[in-house]
Write a structure and sequence with these properties.
Shape: globular
Number of strands: 19
Number of helices: 3
CATH topology of the largest domain: Immunoglobulin-like
CATH architecture of the largest domain: Sandwich
Strand order of the largest sheet: 3-9-8-5-6
Structural class: mainly beta
Number of domains: 3
CATH class of the largest domain: Mainly Beta
Order of helices and strands: HHEEEEEEHEEEEEEEEEEEEE
Largest sheet: 5 strands, mixed
CATH superfamily of the largest domain: Macroglobulin (MG2) domain
Radius of gyration: 26 Å
Length: about 325
């Protein structure tokens, strides 16, 4: 108010002796127009100031996740849509999370006007994908609201969805969300702190490219062999079970393989999909739910790592009605 008053007095003092009443009225109109332009210019800057990209959140009640671009990759469709991105709010109950306590998570997706986002669509057979990874790079979960029950009209109207999880160890967890609207596909990340015992240790780094996972023997080859940030890397999986190549893998959530890729410090996250060798790259690994096609023993995945560092790649496939998990660690230069 003080600044406005000074401007008003200076303006009146300048024009009082030189302008007629009509000129004064015209001058006031010009001043009002100039102030309006200033407000119009300032509003977008103020509106964007609440973006939360690059932040880490330890939830007390609600976590807002906004202004975080989807991870764009030449072989997966997790790109940011046109216009301002939706904001994700994650609410946990209880607010202070302890090891072994059942946690109710509520995910609310809204537009930049604070209204429930419209046009949410099913993507890879689910309305929302949530991936949880512990700081030890060992705890892993891939879940959906549909795991609890059907998604109803009220959930869609309010853009609010439930999740359930019991955190097995204390420490920091990344929670990644993937969802789709008519404008595009989005990937958001948040962080949750869990207290109690046992406590997660540091990640165990094993760069082996040939590993056993129960009855499955998996070999991973990268092309090029030296993986560089910002460059496309093709990963080729070869899976055998009891020495024999597996040729009867099934589609899992509309894809031959789901991959969750995370930097060792949890600051980078990608959710992408594998493809059957020989499929068009633009297919992005999508398969129809009713597909009866069986495939294997090879699966390809294309990843562009955003920055240098050590990454863990979690890979999920479906075989004989069961979801199986493979994991490898790679170094990116």
């Amino acid at each position: 108010m003080g600044t406005t008053k000074r401007i008003e007095l200076m303006w009146k003092g300048t024009i009082s002796g030189a302008l007629s009443q009509r000129s004064i009225s015209a001058a006031w109109l010009c001043l009002a127009f100039s102030l309006s332009l200033s407000l119009i210019i300032l509003i977008p800057v103020s509106s964007s100031a609440h973006g939360l990209a690059g932040k880490r959140f330890f939830p007390t009640t609600t976590i807002a996740i906004g202004n975080h671009a989807g991870h764009e990759n030449s072989n997966h469709e997790h790109y940011a849509g046109a216009g301002l991105e939706p904001v994700v709010h994650l609410k946990t109950s209880p607010s202070d999370i302890s090891v072994g306590t059942p946690v109710k998570m509520t995910v609310h997706i809204e537009d930049r006007n604070g209204k429930p986002v419209e046009g949410l669509t099913v993507h890879h057979e689910r309305i929302l994908h949530a991936i949880i990874i512990g700081e030890d790079l060992n705890v892993f979960a891939h879940m959906h609201p549909e795991d609890i029950g059907p998604v109803n009209d009220e959930m869609l109207r309010k853009a609010t969805f439930p999740l359930r999880f019991i955190f097995p160890k204390a420490g920091e967890y990344l929670v990644g969300f993937d969802f789709a609207t008519a404008d595009g596909l989005y990937s958001k990340t948040s962080y949750i702190k869990v207290v109690g015992h046992p406590v997660m240790g540091g990640p165990k780094i094993d760069f082996s490219t040939e590993k056993d996972f129960g009855e499955y023997h998996v070999t991973l080859k990268a092309s090029p062999k030296i993986i560089k940030a910002g460059k496309e890397t093709i990963f080729k999986y070869l899976i055998k079970k009891n020495v024999k190549p597996v040729t009867d893998f099934e589609s899992y959530l509309g894809a031959p393989m789901h991959l969750a890729v995370v930097l060792a410090d949890l600051k980078q996250f990608i959710h992408t999909h594998g493809i059957i060798p020989g499929e068009p790259r633009t297919a992005s690994g999508h398969m129809h739910a009713e597909s009866t096609e069986r495939f294997g023993p090879e699966i390809d995945a294309v990843i562009v790592f955003p920055v240098k560092g050590t990454y863990k790649i979690f890979s999920q496939m479906k075989h004989q009605g069961k979801v199986i998990l493979f994991d490898f660690v790679v170094n990116v230069q």
